[in-house]
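Memo to structure team: turn this sequence into structure tokens by end of day. - J.P.
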Amino acid sequence: MQDVSLAQLGGKGVFVKEIEEALIKNEIDLAVHSLKDCPVEIPATLEIVATPKREDPRDVLISRDHLKIERLPHGARIGTGSLRRKCQLLHLYPDLQIIPLRGNLDTRIKKIDTEGFHGVVVSAAGMRRMGWVNRISCFIPPELMIPAVGQGILALEVRKNDEELKETLSCLNDHKTWIEATCERAFLRRLGGGCRLPLGAHAAITGDKITVNGFIGTPNGRALFRNEFRGPVKDAEELGRALAEDILSRGGKAIVDKMFW
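Reply from structure team:
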């Protein structure tokens, strides 16, 4: 159903719903998701038990003639199905034409030739996993475009009562990735958002400190509130919540209230 927006389909959770139902019905024992597709609230009988080492969390531009994002022509047509990317792109480059885009990675990239796009913005993780790094025109740093919550992270989900499998999978969990994910998802949970709101958060651990950047904005990019918090790794979840509270207090609440009106 590529002619229908994710919000109309029920949000990003639509990507995991059928798989979670298979888990609940004992049709499968393990689900592997992209964490950024997982709602912060999951079914009570299920549990995310491991997050392997994070892949590159950045967004990337794939463009005609391999142009960098800052060299795109005036009025360039850029494809993306993400409100988060649309908001930040228009905030940075208001003259861009952002064209809605759905489909798998290969389908989206082909639009550059088939529909005359100047470029498309997708995740670095997907491109790396497909072995298509050579097709990337530029990596967009998180300082310029904040990634989606959980971008580049896989989530392993099982039935909560399956203690044997939980123990078996524990060796696949990367502690650093788990803490970063916890921080980012705390930010998302406090904002109560999903794909209906342009928002993002990116946490990174250095030594015993964690830094988290987050934002919320309007789809047209005209309003965007962002900030950065840093603190001890042990306070990761609280930092994510506190960052969300800060952004809400400085104007983000008006956006949330309007979007959910």
